[in-house]
Fold this sequence. Notes:
The chain is α+β, with helices and mostly antiparallel strands. The chain has 24 helices and 22 strands. Helix 20 links the parallel strand 20 and strand 21.
Amino acid sequence: MTPPILAPLQNPATRRKWLTLTSGALIVLGLIALYGFGLRGLWAGAMLAAAFVAGSDIAWRAVQALRIRHFSIELLVTVAAIGALFIGEYWESAAVTFLFSLGAWLEARTLRQTRGALADLLKAAPETATVIRDGQPVDLPAASVQLGETVLVRAGSRIPVDGEVTEGNAAVSEAAITGEPIPAEKAPGSHVHAGTIAENGVLRIRATGIGSDTTLARIIRRVEEAQEERAPSQRMIERFAQWYTPAIMVLALGAWAVTQDLRLALTLLVVACPGALVISTPVSIVAGIGRAARSGILIKGGQHLENAGRIDMLALDKTGTLTEGKPSLVEVLPLAGTKRAELLHWAAIAESGSDHPLGRPIVAADRAEGEIPTPEAVEELAGMGLVVRHAGREIAAGNRRLFDTLDITFDAAAEAALDGVLERGRTPIIVALDGQIAGILGLSDQPRASAAPAMARLREIGVSRIAMLTGDQPQPARAIAAELGIDEVHAGLMPEDKLALIRAFQADGRHVAMIGDGINDAPALAAADTSIAMGAAGSDVAIETADIALMADDLEKLPEAVAISRATLRNMRQNLAIALLTVVGLLAGVFSGDVHMASGMLIHQLSVLVVIANAMRLLRTPRRPGGGKGRPVPADGALAPATA
Ligand SMILES: Nc1ncnc2c1ncn2[C@@H]1O[C@H](COP(=O)(O)OP(=O)(O)OP(=O)(O)O)[C@@H](O)[C@H]1O
Ligand SMILES: [Zn+2]
């Protein structure tokens, strides 16, 4: 049993801290003994003790690594420190081990800060909840809330579960999840997420997600995994370090053999430590992913972050991505003697069998008139529409392609009506009863308010080609595209056409990101270099499958995600440069005789800290242009490199 007072030392971080402090104190004692009192013996003893105190932990780590056949940096330092003692350089040995421990300790501390965004997320989860049991409010640990129970949330407190509002109204700040600074109004029927804050008003919420099964918990898990996942460049550096470390040992042995200068050889071991190199990319990635998470942008790992940093083309689907996805029914054009109400009713019966966004306003409009019967048989044809059977009749609703497939012909009146709807920039839904065209409905969908500024910003940061890929007709697609400043439109696409286009863009040498929502986008999303989902807070599938999930339903997060990825990539390159230049400079210094063991270790450890500090610049909260209300768009000043 460890005595209680020593128990904290079993924690490696605490042990390292105390060993470092003790070793530092011994060095100071030794220096005072020598320069204050001329006591050489006490000096040597103190330095030996200091080297032993700090070195034991380093040597222990070196041995642990060797047992898994890993040539660690600790091994280089251990050999150098023992060698220095061997040639009577007690001071050098003490200084090298002390500085290495000190650097490692500071490194661990600052690395923890780069994970700060995750800590913010963890803090967002409240620990207690007020549940209504037997009509009475009871305070419980949040973990003991049961599914389906009603949770009471008072003004100013955090919501402890995912759920549906059953009573009350409140403005809920969802910043912890979506990064959106503006609170959302919640009323009975709205969905709310654990970790969000009811800023005013009291809500009663029926719990639909508890404990580890909330969106917040999923985001935390994913950020953790993403920060652990190794990027390709990181794996490359790790492989490099595997042969680099033994190579340095061989180099040192060679230098010793040639120059007969053991001190030179030992100094080489110290200054060639790849410490800054090994940490250069992971520290940037952890910081970049954390910075993104703070804005409600979930980047699923270093690999995805590197890919996103390289994209130069974006493909977007229209319905639900560039547009609100809530079309309104603006035209009802009955044909061939059909009555307006009949046309709407038949169309609504058909669309009640689909959950395509186009069907919803039709169903809603007809529901205002009365009950909608459920069709007996439904056949949905992706990218075309659907055919249903009801009361012995066959209803078809969809686009021209559907009617060509069904061999239903258009008379002159139908052609004219269809052309009119298309000319007005609306999406037509043609309706036929038993093979006879009964009329045409015209729908129009609003572009999102965030779409135009987001497209402009993307071009500004170098996404030079932006293309709309849509299943809708060319005319309504072009009308929306023109409003948003998108000049490349591919319309009337089937899911496999979207996929083929992405492949074609890639064959053109483009690094393509695709953002979409529908099932018709799934194959294209899978083929894109980076797949992006928006409004992911409402969809667990999106959180799980997309490379980048934008929690908010806000297109302006798109340029922010790209900007963060680019800034992280730049940051990684800067860090690599800092690390390599330091090693090269130190090696030159050793051969010119300007750098010795202790100073070499000092400079090396400083380079490690510089690399970490550089990565931490990524975490800075960006300025919000235009003051208060603006969305958090990364300002160049915050994410661009300060040094070349
Ligand atoms: N339930 C439906 N009712 C009527 N028409 C439909 C239905 N589903 C699809 N269609 C027709 O097929 C077309 C393509 O649909 P699809 O779902 O592939 O793309 P979309 O959602 O319209 O556009 P985007 O690809 O931009 O999301 C629609 O524009 C419409 O003409
Ligand atoms: Zn879509």
